[in-house]
Design a protein that fits this description.
Keywords: Aminotransferase, Pyridoxal phosphate, Transferase. It contains 13 helices and 14 strands. The strands form 3 sheets. It has a 7-stranded mixed beta sheet, with helices on both faces. A hairpin with a 2-residue loop joins strand 10 and strand 11. The N terminus is likely disordered. It binds 2-oxoglutaric acid (AKG) and gamma-amino-butanoic acid.
Length: about 500
């Protein structure tokens, strides 16, 4: 029997609320999204440091057995609600980073809690199946009702797994198998291939490559890491495939003032990419690209760039893999960020994770495995995570997709207001950019960026960093204009005090 659910309620104010500046960002737009009842009204910080004394003690203890230098603070999930996270010391923060972009409905969303308190959810939590061998009865129907409902056009199959690195890495294997199978003429493996692969030698182990882009982030497992190019610290001391890297456009902002320069920059990157594919000593079987490079610093390119890139992949027989691990599931204002490109020729493979909770990739029919046990593992994802995705999808589709409309309304308001602030504080922020609520701006230096992120935490906001000097917003899909307005107040009050 399940215990009665503990109600998650606002914690009572113990100290003075934050003293905030008056809002100066125009009218707060209306959202079609229904407000979350019982959400905190505002952040409230009750300790002089974050983590506070309780958090510090627990983190120090954790540090005896695990790396702790990356920890922001400890989360009290039971007390957190909606867009507000409560830490171990009772501090309430407005969360606009949401566990690195992976909390689509915020904390303790009533629909999520309801779905997880069912008999089905208990069964799935109690028995994590080996999905490739013994899937639960509802696995197939649920896949059809959920993931396949949002599968990009023409991508008729889905592989599921546990996380983004695994999704990308299995996508690379799929691209390589597709590439070789075409050349083999869809014939059975030869004896020579079968024997040589056990020695990691050709022809069974072919020399093939996956092309990625400067500043890309595609994960940290060995194969995925070979395509990750955002920061040296991810890669140092780890063996990597000798795979090619192409330039990703470095656009200049504001976009409407640099139309010619940006078009030239994109043309340069496209032509270099094609040159690399044609001349690389190791044949390129696939290329992978994020619709917006996230970890690498929220770097954008135009739909035209991506359309031309897709054509280069097609013309050169290279699998075109789109990494929607961070951009996917509605935050950019489309369900998939790549929908904005208006492709005639859809990607070959689209990978997902984070906000979908379950990870994996969609692929075309011709990328189907030629034999079983080629891409496989014990769990191949988790039906409990698929159940979470079902809840998320239902929420997104509710009330004529009010949540998606909310993302666009809130995102436009936040982005426009940040642009106003950038005019007022040009020494602290520039190049505001984004789609939906997937927004970022740059600080002049890494030190300024870090001091903004640290200072605003003590004023009650959990904000994200990326690249060398960027600040990124990855709020939940229930982040509404009123939350954006609250953020803007706290933000201006924070940066106006920075030296
Ligand atoms: O650093 C990681 O492994 C998480 C990366 C990520 O997705 C991000 O920071 O955007
Ligand atoms: N790529 C790591 C991001 C995590 C963090 O900002 O804390």
């Amino acid at each position: 029997m399940l215990q009665k659910q503990k109600t998650t309620k606002k914690i009572v104010s113990q100290q003075l609320p934050l003293i905030l500046g008056k809002r100066a960002f125009g009218n707060i737009p209306k959202t079609p999204l229904k407000p979350l009842e019982g959400e905190f009204e505002k952040p409230e910080i009750i300790t002089s440091t974050i983590p506070g004394p309780i958090g510090k003690r627990l983190i120090e203890d954790l540090g005896r057995i695990q790396e702790i230098r990356t920890i922001h603070f400890l989360v009290d999930f039971d007390r957190s609600f909606g867009n507000y996270v409560v830490d171990s010391d009772g501090n309430v923060l407005l969360d606009v980073f949401c566990h690195i972009s992976s909390l689509p409905l915020g904390y303790n969303h009533p629909s999520m809690i309801k779905a997880l308190r069912t008999r089905d959810a208990v069964q799935l939590a109690a028995h994590r199946p080996a999905l490739g061998s013994l899937p639960n009865v509802s696995w197939g129907p649920k896949l059809h009702e959920t993931l396949m409902k949002v599968a990009p056009e023409g991508l008729t199959r889905v592989f599921t797994c546990a996380n983004g690195s695994e999704a990308n890495e299995n996508a690379y294997k799929t691209a390589c198998m597709w590439y070789v199978n075409q050349r083999r003429g869809n014939k059975p493996f030869t004896d020579e291939e079968i024997q040589s692969c056990m020695l990691n030698k050709p022809p069974g182990t072919p020399s093939l490559s996956i092309l990625s882009f400067e500043k890309a982030f595609h994960g940290r497992t060995l194969g995925a890491l070979s395509t990750t190019r955002s920061k040296p610290i991810h890669k140092l001391d780890v063996p990597a495939f000798d795979w090619p890297v192409a330039p990703f456009p470095q656009l200049k902002y504001p976009l409407d003032q640099f139309v010619k320069e940006n078009a030239e920059e994109e043309a340069r990157c496209l032509s270099r990419t094609e040159e690399i594919i044609k001349s690389n000593k190791i044949p390129v079987a696939g290329m992978i690209i994020e619709p917006i490079q996230a970890e690498g610093g929220d770097r954008h390119a135009s739909p035209d760039f991506f359309r031309k890139l897709r054509k280069i992949a097609r013309d050169n027989g290279v699998a075109f893999i789109v990494d929607e691990v961070q951009t996917g599931v509605a935050a950019t204002g489309n369900f998939w960020a790549f929908q904005k490109w208006g492709l005639d020729d859809q990607p070959d493979i689209v990978t997902f994770s984070k906000k979908s909770q379950i990870a994996g990739f969609f692929h075309r029919e011709e990328y189907k495995m030629t034999a079983p046990y080629r891409n496989y593992n014990t769990w191949m994802g988790d039906p409990l995570r698929l159940l979470q995705f079902e809840v998320i999808l239902n929420e997104i589709n509710k009330d004529d997709q009010a949540m998606l409309r909310n993302v666009n309304i809130t995102g436009n308001y936040l982005q426009d207001s940040l642009k106003e602030l950038a005019k007022k504080y040009p020494h602290l922020m520039k190049d505001v950019r984004g789609d939906g609520t997937f927004i970022a701006f740059d600080s002049p230096t890494v030190e300024t960026r870090n001091s903004i992120v640290n200072a605003i935490k003590l004023n009650g906001v959990e904000l994200g960093a990326c690249g060398d000097q960027s600040i990124r917003f990855r709020p939940s899909l229930v982040f509404a204009p009123k939350h954006a307005s609250q953020f803007l107040d706290i933000f201006e009050s924070t940066i106006s005090k920075l030296k």
